[in-house]
Amino acid sequence: MITEVKVINLGGVNCYLLGSGDSFVLVDTGFVNKRSQLVKELENAGCRPGHLKLIVLTHGDIDHAANAAYLRDRYGASIAMHLDDAGMVEKGDMSWNRKAKPDQISFIGRMVIALGTVATFFAGSNNFERFKPDIYLTDGQSLSNYGLDASVIHIPGHSKGSIGILTANGDLFCGDLLWNMRKPGPHFIVVDLDDYTASVQKLKSLDIRTIYPGHGSPFAREQFFK
Question: DSSP states of 124-176 as a string?
């Protein structure tokens, strides 16, 4: 079973390579303009074509999904995500299945949105390759068939199809439900506050040791769940 976690920071967006021997699962894929860095990180970890078994997307946003189609072609891996976010990557529309106006946007979020046109251009979003996922993950689904002793946790809030991956060791890869830029907390955009609150309560009941967010450093459960 996969036991090692490699944190790959691609300019503030985290990908996680979970590996053991020559078997790997990648959680999220970063922006297009970070593709060469990501491939180098995979190669340095010993992950070569045929070794990457699965690409898990925690949600459909471009900073997490933009390299998925390329990696599928290069490494022969299947792409897996929740059905409720699939339209984002199939249509290239990050607003798909989301409220027109998020319930909660922090000051940082308002700044990012105000600079959105420039930011997405430099992030290479104009090169986003649309694709259809191979696998639609559901809440509680086991990933043991891919060598990962872990299960899928449906945690909407940032998007309807946001998921986390919880390993038997208590490592949670939570996508953008939470982040840790200054301190652990909600991502700067909470699209549906009711969904977010329910997801946090759901996580609170689980046996979690370390949380690996989509943005920022990993943190201990106690740093968020008091």
Answer: TGGG------SEEE-TT-B-GGGT--EEEEE--SSSTT-EEEEETTSEEEEET
The kind and range of the H/E element at 63 are helix 62-65
Place of tokens 């959680």: 27
Mean pLDDT estimate for the chain: 91
Domain CATH for 180: 3.60.15.10
Tell me the pTM: 0.94
| Domain count of the fold of the chain | 1
What residue type is 200 in one-letter code? V
Q: In terms of residue numbers, what domain contains 157?
A: 4-223
Dmax of the chain from CA atoms? 45
Structure tokens at 74: 């290069």
